[in-house]
Amino acid sequence: MGSRESVREATAGDAAGIQALAGELAEAVGDASPDEESVGARLGELLNEPRARVFVAEVEGEVAGLATLWIKPDLAHGDVVVEVPMLVVAGEHRRGGIGKLLMARVREVAADNDASVVELVATRANVAARNFYKSLGFVEADVVSLEFVGDNGNPPDGA
Question: What does pTM read for this prediction?
């Protein structure tokens, strides 16, 4: 990692670069890639949300990585948790320190907000991501992730 890499707050002008990264991430997990208009709309919402942060990593002026985070008050523990719903590095920049640079910024935000925990999710099959996070001191929690993917307006019986 050299001086050509930097991390900064995202701007609305980063939508195309972020959409490309979101597409890479979607492909890796088998999801459909979001369109640029949707990414731009969600980016605008996040940039205006005081508890959310969006960081981009640049290499020689081009967006090479992205981290999003939420600063969440946690009633269960009476403290603050920083959740990282998205961390992605462009394929050609992986294993070059960009992910570490982004996670260092996440840890700075966590420290600035007195967060006791930084939490994120990686799929069981994504061994590279899991190993990366472990190398940064993360431990795998014994939890089960549940997602409701049905129609919220018409839930199944019993819901």
Answer: 0.85
